[in-house]
Specification:
This protein is mainly β. 0% of the residues lie in helices and 44% in strands.
Length: 138
């Protein structure tokens, strides 16, 4: 089964001021005894410990081992991964500043403590054990 060997993500993230956006790099190194080419996906969910709810509508945030060559979102937003096929999956998470509005449905990134729960699946439909990483956004 796949195994998440390491998670690399800041534990303290500062939300930018105004209408600014910071991209925070998140990485997970994964291993599978059947080979890295058997890994189907690597990702995480984000859960607000303060608000007791899952972010991103409970959807997985996927990380990529694509060497940063694939454009994921227009105009030219890539994963930020540096080496394709090395088993380190990457994604740059946008942290939106406080100037985007006070409406809970806007793009402003919430502050507080969050549990990021990482997991992986391989082509045999086996899942890794989950790895939790707690972050604080201020």
């Amino acid at each position: 089964i796949p195994k998440i060997v390491n998670v690399f993500a800041d534990t303290l993230i500062y939300r930018p001021e105004g209408r600014n956006i910071n991209l925070i790099e998140v990485k997970a190194t994964v291993y599978d005894g059947d080979g890295l080419e058997t890994i189907k996906w690597v990702g995480f969910t984000s859960y607000s410990l303060r608000d007791d709810e899952t972010m991103n509508n409970g959807n997985m945030i996927y990380l990529y081992d694509d060497g940063g060559t694939e454009i994921l979102y227009p105009p030219d937003f890539t994963s930020g991964d540096s080496i394709k096929g090395d088993g380190t999956y990457t994604f740059k998470i946008p942290i939106y500043g406080n100037g985007f509005g006070d409406n809970p449905n806007d793009d402003t990134t919430r502050t507080g403590s969050f549990r990021w729960r990482f997991s992986s699946q391989d082509i045999a439909n086996d899942y890794s054990q989950m790895v939790d990483h707690v972050i604080v956004i201020q």
